């Protein structure tokens, strides 16, 4: 009975909140925050300058990769198998996140409103001498940045406009090696994505500290290099595999929960209904979390940091159980097949410099362009024009998760997706008067109903009494008439 009552109230709450979202709350996703706008502008200027300086030549179209077509190649199963860590970053960083958020203590409030964009030290992957050395010693086929893996696999991501540089080398032994650099995608963001990008950078600044006895190195040494095997079963009856060297920039290690000293990745989650709780993780967010943790190393732990839309910290969640379900229920195959198809195409290219371009208007197509000294067209002009195209903002309501207790629930002593108690202070005298009045009214009603029953009973008794009296009188009259008739008949017979 209690469970049914709770579920009924939760359904009423969801209906009420969805209406409130449509009336007003959805506009929070469209709000432009000035300091974030300036931050994104600086990041975009840096990215565009970097692209101009490294990829400003002329290009010719080489091929199109259509992820809706498999070229009549049947792939039964794709596996991404972790082999080993071939080199660990030289920067020791500990991530120290707040375990408990006290929203009643304003002095302990953590905000992210003072972020300043710091241009990173960035070099193309093909110029990374450490990567080239590790590639040779570990028999690598494809060197690739984690950001490019995520971009290639998650093509459905809204507003996903990016350029990925690709270099194909052939050594003196005729061995081909492919270098897939980091995805360059700053600029084409919705307001939600701007907040996410900003927090992605600033969270690491806020919560990281150097490990004891560790000297802070420059960004060029701040990478992990992991060897993976992309194994494909039954490609037209043949098993194939690629040895991958994945370069990623670690966030740090955590020492707050068991197992300690495990690598952790900090991922922001912007909450647009923080006064009501933790919004459910969408399918799109779930894929992002899975990609960001699964392909760093198998032990990587997710720290999901919920931040209110006004950039105040809401809470930290260490686990998202649904992330593991992507691999267990087979949904990962679609994403892994995209990675395989891309690498299969790139390993067929000849020696040279290439660029992959993804246009969000054609999400399941990627164009491959080759750098050409014999003329062509300026790829960057098209890229900069695409940056100016319309950006889509999702205003679809995201329900509150009923299973996650937030600081706001503890503060108001209420369960998730339940209405809060009346905040007015209780007046005992008023309540007593109301109870007395209620009891008096109830007693009066009972007395009235009893009086009505007695009246009906009395009327019924009187009616029955009259009926009996009439019946008796009728019987007497019948006897008199009957006797008179009998007497008359007797006199007639005598005469």
UniProtKB/TrEMBL annotation:
Transmembrane segments: none
Superkingdom to which the source organism belongs: Eukaryota
GO biological process, one term: snRNA transcription by RNA polymerase III
Gene Ontology, cellular component aspect: transcription elongation factor complex
Pfam families: NARG2_C
Domain Little elongation complex subunit 2 C-terminal residues, every copy: 214-421
Protein name per its UniProtKB record: Little elongation complex subunit 2 C-terminal domain-containing protein
Organism for this UniProt entry: Acyrthosiphon pisum
Lineage of origin: Eukaryota, Metazoa, Ecdysozoa, Arthropoda, Hexapoda
């Amino acid at each position: 009975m209690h469970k049914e009552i709770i579920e009924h109230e939760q359904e009423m709450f969801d209906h009420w909140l969805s209406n409130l979202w449509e009336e007003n709350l959805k506009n929070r996703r469209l709000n432009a925050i000035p300091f974030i706008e300036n931050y994104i502008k600086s990041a975009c200027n840096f990215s565009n300058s970097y692209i101009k300086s490294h990829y400003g030549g002329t290009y010719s179209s080489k091929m199109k990769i259509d992820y809706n077509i498999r070229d009549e190649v049947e792939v039964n199963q794709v596996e991404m198998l972790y082999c080993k860590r071939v080199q660990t970053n030289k920067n020791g960083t500990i991530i120290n996140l707040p375990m408990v958020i006290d929203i009643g203590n304003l002095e302990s409030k953590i905000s992210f409103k003072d972020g300043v964009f710091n241009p990173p030290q960035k070099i193309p992957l093909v110029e990374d001498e450490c990567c080239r050395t590790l590639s040779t010693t570990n028999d690598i086929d494809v060197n690739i940045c984690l950001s490019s893996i995520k971009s290639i696999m998650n093509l459905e991501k809204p507003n996903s406009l990016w350029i990925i540089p690709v270099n194909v080398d052939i050594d003196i032994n005729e061995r081909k090696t492919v270098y897939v650099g980091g995805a360059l995608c700053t600029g084409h963001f919705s307001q939600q994505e701007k907040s996410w990008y900003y927090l992605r950078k600033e969270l690491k600044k806020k919560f990281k500290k150097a490990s004891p006895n560790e000297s802070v190195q420059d960004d060029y040494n701040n990478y992990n290099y992991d060897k993976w095997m992309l194994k494909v079963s039954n490609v037209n009856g043949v098993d194939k595999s690629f040895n991958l060297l994945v370069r990623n920039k670690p966030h740090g290690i955590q020492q707050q929960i068991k197992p300690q000293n495990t690598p952790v990745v900090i991922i922001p989650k912007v909450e647009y209904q923080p006064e009501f709780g933790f919004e459910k993780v969408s399918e799109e967010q779930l894929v992002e979390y899975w990609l960001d943790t699964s392909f760093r190393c198998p032990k990587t732990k997710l720290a999901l940091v919920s931040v209110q839309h006004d950039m105040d910290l809401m809470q930290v969640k260490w686990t998202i159980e649904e992330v593991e379900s992507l691999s267990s229920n087979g949904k990962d195959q679609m994403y892994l097949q995209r990675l395989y198809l891309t690498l299969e195409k790139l390993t067929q290219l000849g020696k040279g410099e290439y660029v992959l371009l993804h246009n969000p208007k054609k999400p399941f197509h990627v164009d491959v362009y080759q750098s050409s000294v014999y003329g062509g067209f300026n790829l960057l002009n098209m890229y900069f024009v695409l940056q100016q195209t319309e950006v889509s903002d999702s205003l679809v309501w995201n329900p509150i998760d009923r299973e996650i207790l937030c600081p706001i629930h503890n503060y108001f002593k209420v369960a998730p997706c339940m209405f809060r108690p009346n905040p007015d202070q209780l007046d005992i005298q008023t309540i007593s008067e109301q109870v007395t009045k209620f009891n008096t009214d109830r007693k009066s009603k009972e007395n009235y109903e009893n009086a009505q029953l007695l009246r009906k009973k009395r009327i019924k008794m009187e009616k029955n009494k009259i009926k009996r009296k009439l019946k008796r009188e009728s019987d007497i009259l019948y006897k008199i008439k009957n006797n008179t008739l009998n007497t008359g008949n007797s006199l007639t017979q005598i005469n």
